[in-house]
Design goal:
The N terminus is likely disordered. The strands form 2 sheets. The protein has a 5-stranded mixed sheet, sandwiched between helices. A 5-stranded mixed sheet has the order 7-6-8-5-9, sandwiched between helices. It contains 16 helices and 10 strands. The chain is α/β, with parallel strands linked by helices. The protein has 2 domains: 193 residues, 3-Layer(aba) Sandwich (D-Maltodextrin-Binding Protein, domain 2), CATH 3.40.190; 113 residues, D-Maltodextrin-Binding Protein, domain 2 (3-Layer(aba) Sandwich).
């Protein structure tokens, strides 16, 4: 071997070694388009991943996130039309689509139940029980009140109805109407135009902190025992896409698991990253109030067991009356997202 050739071989080996030592995200990445039904604390894992691209990049993925601002049906529509690879949405929206014929896979379980009922102080004054009463009494006290939340079929509506059924009532015993705009909820509670609202923890903190609202029931803190561990927000993909890209699907799940771990283990850093990207004008105290309540809902491992998945389907079936046979655990949940 000539001296020059020998030097070239050594140089090439050195370059190859240096490239091999580079982080995996420095190599070509698979682009993943995610439609999020909303960006709020319930959807924090994808918000954190957007604010910190290294989470998906570490799995060789380039992330693109679209915030649908509460339009959950548009999330499923975007997924089915192949405009995105992932739809992150309330679990009932995805399982409803599956029951109606869509072939979808649950790639990652994003978060557990994280809603809370906030009542106006005026409404609470008119009740015969207070916020420290047993949860069954607080649930019964909602009967006849004017309370808003998201549309029928949504995660919040389904769990609202199921919660009322635990005390022999239903959502029909409430003066319910659909409202998904947080500013309107806040003003309605503040001015006592509404008796209350069910929405993501922290969203209604302004009226609580100013004394115009009262935290009445919180799914996040485990007030409703039967809801603990349920898959509330899920990342869905098309089944045909998962079959064509099984490794990418597994890496997406791994990225979600990493995001959830960071949300729990590095709360101050994670909270500030999300606030800076999506809510820069929100007072730090308000954001902290919601984030701290939500921490227990970030599901470690981004997975679900068969019993919890089935329990959620049963809750949904009781509320909607639909047949969810197509959405059972074995048919829908990605292997990587199955926990023991």
């Amino acid at each position: 071997m000539s001296k020059n050739l020998g030097k070239s071989v050594i140089a090439a080996a050195a370059i190859a070694g240096a490239m091999a030592a580079l982080p995996s995200f420095a190599q070509a990445q698979d682009k993943v388009r995610v439609a999020a039904a909303a960006i709020n604390i319930a959807h924090a894992p994808i918000a954190l991943a957007a604010a910190n691209p290294e989470i998906f990049a570490a799995q060789g993925l380039e992330l693109e996130v679209t915030d649908l601002r509460g339009a959950s049906p548009n999330c499923i529509a975007a997924l089915i039309s192949e405009a995105v690879e992932i739809c992150q949405v309330g679990t009932p929206t995805g399982t409803d689509a599956i029951a109606e014929g869509a072939d979808l896979v649950a790639v990652a379980i994003v978060s557990g139940p994280n809603g809370e009922f906030v009542l106006s102080s005026k409404a609470v004054e008119s009740l015969s029980v207070n916020a420290d009463a047993p949860v069954e009494d607080r649930i019964r006290a909602l009967s006849g009140l004017s309370i808003v939340t998201s549309a029928p079929g949504s995660a919040y509506y389904t769990m609202f109805d199921s919660m009322m059924q635990t005390v022999g009532l239903s959502i029909s015993d409430i003066r319910y109407r659909t409202l998904a705009e947080v500013p309107a909820m806040i003003e309605g509670i503040r001015n006592a135009a509404l008796d209350g609202a069910l929405w993501t923890v922290g969203s209604l903190s302004p009226v609580v902190l100013e004394g115009k609202g009262v935290r009445w029931i919180s799914f996040a803190r485990g007030d409703v025992e039967n809801f603990q561990g349920l898959p509330f927000i899920t990342a869905f993909a098309r089944k045909d896409w998962v079959e064509q890209h099984p490794d990418v699907a597994r890496r997406i799940h791994a990225a979600y698991a990493d995001a959830n771990a960071r949300l729990r283990d590095r709360p101050e850093e994670s909270a500030e990253l999300i606030r800076a990207k999506y809510f820069p004008d929100l007072e730090a105290e308000l954001w902290k109030d919601g984030y701290e309540q939500a921490i227990p809902t970030f599901i470690q491992g981004a997975g679900v067991d068969a019993e919890s998945w089935q329990r959620f389907l049963e809750i949904q079936q009781t509320s909607s009356g639909k047949d969810y046979t197509r959405a059972v655990f074995e048919n829908v949940v990605l292997e990587a997202a199955r926990s023991n």
